[in-house]
Amino acid sequence: MKLGSIHMKKLTLETGGKFPLIGVRRLKLGLGRSMGSSRLHFNQGELCTATTRILVQDTIFDRFLDALKSITLKYPVGQPFEEKTYLGPLVSKAHFHRVREYGYFVSPSIFVDVKPSMRIYREEIFGPCAVVLQFQDEDEALRLANDSMYGLGSALFTENISKAHNVARGIEAGTIWVNSSNDSDFRVPFGGAKQSGIGRELGDAGLEAYYNIKAIHVNIGNILPI
Questions:
Q1: Which residues form the Aldehyde dehydrogenase domain (predicted)?
Q2: Would you call 129 a catalytic residue per the annotation?
Q3: pTM, entire model
Q4: Strand ranges in the chain using DSSP code E only, listed in sequence order
C-alpha cells in the first residue's frame, strides 16, 4: 500500500484468514464432519479459507468431535504422486519450520480445550491443524466467530435455512458458505473484511478494480449553465 500510494495506485489485496466453521444443533452430522475435515486438510492446510476454527454447539459437540477425529485419522501423509496420499509436504523448508514453531505437528491435528486468547486460535498457521470449540447459543457462536482480526470467509452448517440467513448476516466475513465450504463461481465476488484484504476478485465487483469511471456532461440546450 505504501508503494502504491506514491503513484496513487488502486489496490486489491487478499491477505489471509482464520476461517470459522459453525455447526449448530440441527445439522447433517456427516456433511459437517466431512466438510470440516476435507476443507481443513485440502492442499496441506495451505489455504486462506481452510476451516481452522471449528465451532460446534455443545449439544452435539462430543459426537461431532468423535466423527471428525475418525475421518481425520484416515488421511495418509506421504509423497504427493502416490495414489494413496491425501496430504503431501508443506510448500518449502522455510514454511515447514514456520509451522513447527507452533508445536511439533505437521500431520493432521485437532486441538480441543483451546481458549480464544491462544495463538493457535488467533493466528493463521497455514498448516493442517484446527481448533474445535463448543458454544451454547447463536450469540456465543457469533462472538467466537467474529473474535478475529481476519474476515475472509466462514461456513455454517444447519438444516434450518432461516437460522442460517440470520447467523450469516452477523458474521464479519466477505464470503459465507451455508452447508458447503470453498465452492466458487467466477460470477460471484470474493474478498475479505477487516485485515483479510481490500477489494474483491471475480464478478462485476472484481472488474471494477481495473477501470476508472468517467462522467461526461453534455449540454444540448441553448442556455449556458450558470
A1: 102-216
A2: no
A3: 0.77
A4: 13-14, 20-23, 53-57, 109-111, 129-135, 150-151, 153-157, 175-178, 193-194, 197-198
